[in-house]
Specification:
Elements: E1 2-6, H1 11-22, E2 26-31, E3 47-51, H2 57-64, E4 69-72, H3 79-84, H4 86-107, E5 111-117, H5 140-159, E6 162-168, E7 170-172, H6 184-194, E8 200-202, E9 208-209, E10 211-213, H7 214-224, E11 233-237, E12 243-244, H8 245-256, E13 263-265, H9 280-286, H10 294-303
Parallel strand pairs: 1-2, 1-4, 2-3, 4-5, 5-6, 6-11, 7-10, 8-13
Antiparallel strand pairs: 9-12
The structure holds nicotinamide-adenine-dinucleotide.
Residues 6-7, 9-13, 30-36, 53-55, 73-77, 92, 96, 115, 117, 168, 170-171, 177, 180, 182-183 line the site of nicotinamide-adenine-dinucleotide.
């Protein structure tokens, strides 16, 4: 099969690419290398790279030729960047998705998997988050991810293009960007400890997140690409567990054999206090569940 992976030079897209190659497929990457890196792309005769912008419809149509399925990971993934430039977010994160859907529909693509985000839930307090709960997007990033998800569903119902939206929580693993608001904190803590510096925790450290290892996210994508009842639906991709930032740092300190002695600073505006997913829909419809425990994932990340 030939797969198009948008954002294939980025963190998650490059792991999806690796997996598709290992499964014997051909991969075409469409990436503008704004945050993606050439060295993230596996060196293989089965990978074709198009340097281009998902915001440009003609480029997307060219990339879609002879493609069987799409993993649409390309986005401005930095929430602060979208707050600073909402028009750029709309162009890449929303219109880029519509470009993908429209080109996929005309090219006769079988299925499109869309990288959505837990950001769509906003700061509504009810936990754990289920896909049928109300949403409250609070940033251009979250608005455009939610609008893209609606576009995916509309393309399924209006045109029969199979689409699956995956709401990733905090994905971590090798090649993650240390400046990522999702899991960059892991790399930042690790770097501070490696340099004998005291890590900073904003707030009391009791804010919680649902960290999911990147290989599990890849597996969720692969299952979403074949599960018969997945099209037209959205799924949380997370562990269903929860970890406070204090616990996270303690775990990293234990692995590195260093004392836990963070510096606490006032919490940052707009930080969501708690985030945790209900993953029963992904279990039921995708037959998926995470397999990598947090500590094991950290060890793999530090080894890489
Ligand atoms: N990392 C997480 O925890 C997380 C959580 C929720 C959702 N997501 C979503 O998952 C996807 C992948 O995120 P990531 O963490 O791998 O980020 P990343 O920044 O590493 O990857 C994004 C890729 O998209 C490319 N890109 C950006 N704008 C583009 C454009 N206009 N045209 C073509 N390519 C473009 C970048 O160069 C990069 O290679 C994104 O859609 C992101 O919003 C990530």
């Amino acid at each position: 099969m030939r797969y198009l992976v948008t954002g294939g030079a980025g963190f998650i897209g490059s792991h999806i690419t690796e997996r598709l190659l290992a499964d014997g497929h051909q991969v075409r990457i469409l990436d503008n290398f704004s945050t993606g890196k050439h060295e993230n792309i596996p060196d293989s005769a089965d990978v074709e790279v198009i340097a281009g912008d998902v915001g440009d419809y003609d480029t997307v149509c060219a990339a879609m030729a002879q493609v069987d399925m799409v993993f649409h990971e390309a986005a401005i993934a930095s929430v602060p960047e979208t707050v600073g430039n909402p028009l750029a977010s709309e162009r890449v994160n929303y219109r880029g998705t519509v470009n993908i859907l429209e080109a996929a529909r005309h090219a006769g693509v079988q299925r499109v998997m869309f990288a959505c985000s837990a950001a769509v839930y906003g700061d509504l307090p009810e936990l754990p988050k289920r896909e049928d709960m109300p949403v409250k997007p609070m940033t251009p990033y979250a608005i455009d991810k939610l609008a893209s998800e609606h576009a995916c569903q509309a393309y399924y119902h209006l045109y029969g293009l199979e689409t699956v939206s995956l709401r990733y929580f905090n994905v971590f693993g090798p090649r993650q960007d240390p400046s990522s608001p999702y899991s960059g904190v892991i790399s930042i803590f690790s770097d501070f400890l490696n340099h004998g510096k005291q890590p900073t925790i904003y707030g009391d450290g009791e804010q919680t997140r649902d960290f999911v290892y990147v290989a599990d996210v890849v597996e969720a994508n692969i299952r979403a690409s074949t599960a018969s009842e997945a099209p037209g639906r959205s799924f949380n991709v997370a562990t269903g567990g929860t970890l406070s930032i204090n616990e996270l740092l303690k775990t990293i300190c234990d692995i590195k054999g260093q004392p836990f002695s963070p510096q606490y600073k006032p919490g940052r505006d707009g930080d969501i206090k708690h985030s945790r997913a209900d993953i029963s829909a992904a279990r039921e419809y995708l037959g998926w569940q995470p397999t990598v425990a947090f500590e094991d994932g950290l060890l793999k990340l530090f080894e890489a």
